[in-house]
Amino acid sequence: MNTRNHSRSIQFIKKQVDDILQGMKLNSLPIKIEDVAKRAGLTVSPFDFEDDISGVLVIQDGKGVIGYNQSESRVRRRFTIAHELGHFVLHREQSSMFMDKGFNAIFRSAHSGLSEQTQILEREANTFAAYILMPDHLLKEAIEKIDFDLGSEDEIKNLAKVFDVSSQAMYYRILNSGLLKF
Questions:
Q1: Which of 41, 71, 82, 89 could join 129 via S-S bond, C-beta 3.0 to 4.6 A?
Q2: Cβ neighbours, 10 Å, residue 152
Q3: How many angstroms separate the Cα of 150 from the Cα of each of 93, 107, 157, 171, 176?
Q4: How many C-beta atoms surround the C-beta of residue 62 within 10 A?
Q5: Could you tell me which of 93, 82, 99 has the C-alpha nearest to residue 17?
Q6: Alpha carbons 44 and 59: distance in angstroms, whole number
Q7: What pLDDT, on a 0 to 100 scale, did the predictor assign at position 104?
């Protein structure tokens, strides 16, 4: 496995996402992430994983298979597929297998038991997933249509439903988007 000691820039990841969305002419919500993964050449299949495994990406001879935990919620499955697609797009030259254990991927810390390199790859895949499920231009349009209040749980829940993501994912995506002025 090749290693890097730095994280790819958010701008680089956003460009990868934008290229995919533009290339597939995707401008409607929610983003059909399973179709995106399949159009990227991946096989996507439900699996009966143990509870602590959300998904896996296995790459062999340049082709990939995403397995996701069929017992998790629809929004979690969507994020997992997007996350594993992110590994395929960003990291396929670095490893032939990626496994997502649990939902703590956004909050990996020095105490997580993961190496610094693995934490970088996981953060990058999470960033990719957030941007492909909640693209900047579509998020901006959705926020502009309402008088958005970040403190309103109902508004965050409604946006999350439109994008078919969890409220937590929507909250962090908006918070990190730079779209809101304080």
A1: 82
A2: 13
A3: 39, 21, 11, 8, 12
A4: 7
A5: 82
A6: 12
A7: 46
Q: Is the Cβ–Cβ distance between 164 and 75 less than 8 Å? A: yes
Residue type, 75: V
Show the DSSP H helices in 24-150 as ranges.
33-39, 74-91, 116-133, 136-145
pTM value is 0.88
Tell me the three state secondary structure of residue 26.
coil
Q: How many helices (H) and strands (E) does the chain have?
A: 7, 4
Residues 6+ apart with CB under 8 A from 27: 21, 138
Specify the amino acid at residue 105. Answer: A
Q: What is the rounded distance in angstroms from the CA atom of residue 35 to the CA atom of residue 31?
A: 9
> Measured between alpha carbons, how far is 178 from 140 in angstroms, rounded to an integer?
10
Cα–Cα dist 179/37, whole Å: 27
